[in-house]
Amino acid sequence: MRNYFFFLKKELKEGIKTYKLPILLCIFFTFGVLSPMTAKFLPKLLPSLLGEGMNFEIPEPSSTDSWTQYFKNINQLGFVVVILIFSGILSHEFEKGTLINLLTKGLSRTTVLLSKLTYMIVVWTVNLVLSFLITWGYTVYYFSDGKSPHLVSAIFPIWLFGCLLLSVFLFSATLFEKSSGSLLIMVLFTAAGLFLSIIDRIAKFNPFSLVQKNLPFIQGTEFLSDYLPAMCISFLLIVLLTFGACKVFKKKVL
């Protein structure tokens, strides 16, 4: 347990030293600020941007628009940024040979992987919560309309799906010594999940449905309990992928 916290502390220090954590923090802070501001001020700017000849009626913005923009930023950009920030979490260790000395001194390979997964999940959680709270604060300030009552129901599936992506990435990182291989696995995993999303019969079993129903969750038109199978499968995949990563890493020649 002592080695686990030692390695976790090492990861956090390295993330700060290489500016990866501050960069990620700034990006998610921007998501939090930009989402409600875009919803508030973009409708006012559009007429001047499109010219006076364009006559159309723009509906009054609401809290729904703010959260729609937030979910779009996280689902389209947030996940990509997180994976890119962590893309070298194992490959850099392989290239520099930094793990060899630690492992020869008795550090468990399982401890290494679990500390790295914990590090990624903690960083992901902190940044997601930060951006969420900022968005919530500005949304309440700009739009006190009560149209988004179920906030936790919308943010929890995003967090869980992010943890799943990180476990997929960690497993793929144990298979390849270069980050390009891990990123390829992530692309294939995403493509497969999106393809299965078009099959309505299995939507509630597909983990990707957790990031496709955020607005209905927040409005209460869809209920999180209906997607319990997808959440259970996500948890199961996280456990299996973590177990598989440890097994592969134990047999890997460094």
UniProtKB/TrEMBL annotation:
GO terms for molecular function: ABC-type transporter activity. This is ABC transporter permease. The keyword Metal-binding does not apply. It comes from Enterococcus phoeniculicola ATCC BAA-412. GO terms for cellular component: plasma membrane. It comes from the Bacteria. Pfam families: ABC2_membrane_2 (PF12679). Keywords: Membrane, Transmembrane, Transmembrane helix. The keyword Transmembrane helix applies. The chain crosses the membrane at residues 21-39, 74-92, 113-134, 154-176, 183-203, 227-249.
